[in-house]
Amino acid sequence: MKIRTVIVEDSRLARNELKELLKQHDEIELIGEAENVDIGYELIQKENPDLLLLDINMPEKDGFELLEMLDQVPITIFTTAFDEYAIKSFEYNALDYLLKPVNQKRFTMALDKVRVKLSKNQGEDHKTKKLSESSQIFIKDGEACWLVKIGDISHFEIVGNYTRVFFEDKKPLLYKSLNQVEEKLPENSFFRANRQQIVNTNFIENVVPWFNGKLKLHMKNGEEIEVSRRQSYIFKDRMSL
Fold it and tell me: Which InterPro entries match (predicted)?
């Protein structure tokens, strides 16, 4: 199994050093490298790699900001000259944290973790554009960070140009439009109730008739969501035997 890998690192020397380390591992396929976050983002969106080797300190935007921009985050190993970011890196669900200069033994240990992680994920389709209920998304709102399973989210709601995400007792903002979010959601469990909200049908407790042919959804978390008339017809058809 080839491990499709991307390097995002502003230093040409550091990129070359990583490429020399990668040459010792035949299963690694380096599919691209980037010298800054914006180029890295475009590369990851296009190639959907298995593994990301990511520097933290880069000009304009840092490695943490890159992870916040991504819908689906590859397995990530941070490579940095600074040890003060170690704790923060694991808040971003990094698999490992390597201090420069990286030696071959330590690098091999990190790749062993990658192999174990990928073997556990076998059977899931990581190349599909759609997320599954077991997929995880990273959300950062202010200083708080979460890694949330899609299936644990009760609903999404428009807030201006952004989207509020409801899970447990949390309501952070996701810096994407509701339409962007909808494109990624599994269609079998998420439903567009109206222009402002998408609901997880697994969180619906009961459905009651409402005015003008509309429906009202009572959610398990206590929220009430009104389904537009057009979407009410679609909802009834979808949920009928």
Answer: CheY-like_superfamily, LytR-like, LytTR_DNA-bd_dom, Sig_transdc_resp-reg_receiver
- Please say if the pLDDT value at position 168 is more than 80: yes
Q: Do 157 and 199 belong together in one domain?
A: yes
Q: What is the pLDDT of residue 122?
A: 61
CA 166 to chain centre: 16
45 and 104 both lie in a single domain: yes
Average pLDDT of the residues in 79-89: 84
**Which domain covers residue 181, as residue numbers?**
136-239
CA–CA distance from 60 to each of 44, 86, 212 (Å)? 18, 21, 52
73 lies in a domain?
A: yes
Q: What are phi and psi of 193, to 5 degrees?
A: -75, -35
pLDDT score for 125: 47
Written in H, E and C, the secondary structure of the chain is CCEEEEEECCCHHHHHHHHHHHCCCCCEEEEEEECCHHHHHHHHHHHCCCEEEECCCCCCCCHHHHHHHCCCCCEEEEEECCCCCHHHHHHCCCCEEEECCCCHHHHHHHHHHHHHHHHHCCCCCCCCCCCCCCCEEEEEECCEEEEEEHHHEEEEEEECCEEEEEECCECCEECCCHHHHHHHCCCCCEEECCCCEEEEHHHEEEEEECHHHCEEEEECCCCEEEECHHHHHHHHHHHCC
> Could you tell me which residues are beta bridge partners of residue 138?
147
Residue written as token pair 């309501």: 171
If one counts the domains in the chain, the total is 2
Task: State how far the Cα of 51 lies from the Cα of 155, in Å rounded to an integer.
Answer: 30
